[in-house]
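Supplementary Note 2. Why include the ligand at all?

Several targets in our set were suspected to adopt different conformations when bound, so apo predictions alone were not considered sufficient. For every target with a known small-molecule partner we therefore ran a joint prediction. The input for zinc ion is given below.
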Amino acid sequence: MSIRKSITKKDSIYIWTRDRWCCRYCGRPVIFAPAMKQLEKISPAHGYYHAHWKRQHSPLLDEIGATVDHIQAVSNGGCNSIDNYNTSCWRCNLDKKDKPLENWGKIVESLPSSWDGLSSLFVRFYDDESADSTDRQWYRLLCNLGCHSERSEESACTVLK
Ligand SMILES: [Zn+2]
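The joint prediction is reproduced in token form.
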């Protein structure tokens, strides 16, 4: 029997990008929570971010915050592999829990092509001075994807030192 492992940031970015930043269960676009955290810094107290993703304090994250879900729960024999991971909005993740997919819903196959979950906004507004270690890890991973070419190589390298 597998033991549930926490999903790495690297795998999370891979899954969200693979799934074009959409929930594979309901089809809605998802948003990258660290980008909402940045927006909260820029414009505080408008409900962009709260660590607990509660409706009252961060309504968008409470609906469509990006998470990674085990399609088949580890408690039901699912494994910790990329093929068993799906992008899930926070709502679907809470609702599905450990239920087997066949008893709960289905997988959406048709996904948009241009949505990025606000991840490029996160890269654009990233500020190394005020970033915490978690934000630094997200920034490095997103830069390594190489799909945010609007930020110059020089500035990215400076931060990555
Ligand atoms: Zn969903």
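Residues 9-116 form one domain. The beta strands are 66-70, 85-89. Comparable summaries for the other entries are listed in the accompanying table.
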